[in-house]
Amino acid sequence: MSVFLTILAAGLLAAVTPAMASDGAPAPAAPEQPKIARGLLLLHEGRVFMAPCRDRNYLNVEDVSDGGAVLSALKDFGLASGRNLYVELLAVQEGGMLRVSSLNFAHTTARCLGETSNEEDWRALGLRSEWAAAAGAGVLLVERVNAPELRTAYAGVKNDGVQHRIEAEEVTLSFTPGLCRLADGNTLTGWQATLTPGAGAVLEGCGWER
Fold it and tell me: What's this model's pTM, rounded to 2 decimal places?
């Protein structure tokens, strides 16, 4: 099978006039939303740092997830002194501090992965790499063992506040928050994926946001 997801593998500035509260004071700024931070994660003398891709600076990492779940999962995955990981984390950067709230993707390859040239929103891979999917720009591409490649259009990604769902004519691809590890042990993601063909059983896998 030719799996196109071999695992290994925005800035608009606007001038905005602050809204004024009834007493004439500027309205408080809305909290910054987490964005995907990509780079190498390092553990040194008990402290965790990120070396962002294409950046020579280091960021201190603070885990603000419930119970420090993100770093705990990454340490279980293999993060240790002398053993770095490539990671994609949902985080807010404040100066030299990266406050991490959730995991998107991690791989044992201790190097930054090449960026895709395609307009992808989501990727998914079967637990044993028996299927692969990529969605973006209204097109869903699916490859499965012993099945023809499927390329189909979809209208958009539905979000009920928890699950992200892509519904196309012959298949549905869903993403639910939750740690997911591929059978080869080299990939850990923050999304559990399911692929439901028009005819056939539900296929389980791991997913991540692009």
Answer: 0.82
